[in-house]
Write a structure and sequence with these properties.
Length: 184
């Protein structure tokens, strides 16, 4: 590691200590806001420029080795947990809320927030969006630019509007789920 790299790493660790999370790495320009709880394990990281809001009574939990990428937007009103070694790429949005209540014609109010659970060894690609109530199983991969609106099975690879042929696995290859949130 270069001297510059070491200095950056020490600065990120110092930010973690100063914000009450010893052992967690917090990049420059990271905004941690809101009255909720931040549970950042040793070895977890929040990269440069991420914007995070945790609402009252909610918790953001990052396990050892997990990371939220640069310029991500995270809004937590219920709860968000990332398992060990989970990597969230840059410019991803993790939103466990619709931000407003929706009243149905009969007067019933629709649920507008639900926790997001992301398992161990999960990869979420650049620019993806994971919405309320979703569980991503261990080892799942979410393709760049995807919008995930429902649960993803462990080990599944999902992507929105896949190119032709994605839905049909080749002999000896893993199956690929054709869409995250659309009709299948």
């Amino acid at each position: 590691m270069t001297i510059r790299g070491r200095l950056r790493r020490y600065a990120e660790l110092a930010r973690g200590v100063l914000r009450g999370h010893p052992g967690a790495r917090i990049g420059s320009g990271v905004r941690l806001a809101g009255p909720g709880r931040y549970e950042l394990a040793r070895g977890s990281a929040i990269r440069k420029g991420a914007r995070i809001w945790v609402g009252e009574g909610a918790a953001l939990s990052l396990a050892r080795g997990s990371a939220i990428g640069a310029r991500c937007t995270v809004n937590v009103e219920s709860g968000l947990s990332l398992g060990e070694e989970t990597q969230i790429s840059w410019a991803v949005q993790l939103l466990d809320t619709d931000f407003h209540r929706i009243t149905r014609p009969g007067g019933a109010v629709a649920q507008h927030t639900a926790p997001i659970r992301i398992g161990r060894h999960v990869l979420v690609g650049t620019g993806a969006m994971v919405l309320k109530g979703v569980t991503l199983g261990d080892g799942a991969v979410v393709a760049a630019g995807s919008v995930v609106t429902r649960d993803v099975e462990p080990g599944a690879i999902v992507g929105e509007t896949p190119p032709p042929g994605w839905a049909t696995p080749r002999a000896g290859s893993e199956a690929v789920t054709p869409a995250c949130g659309g009709d299948s």
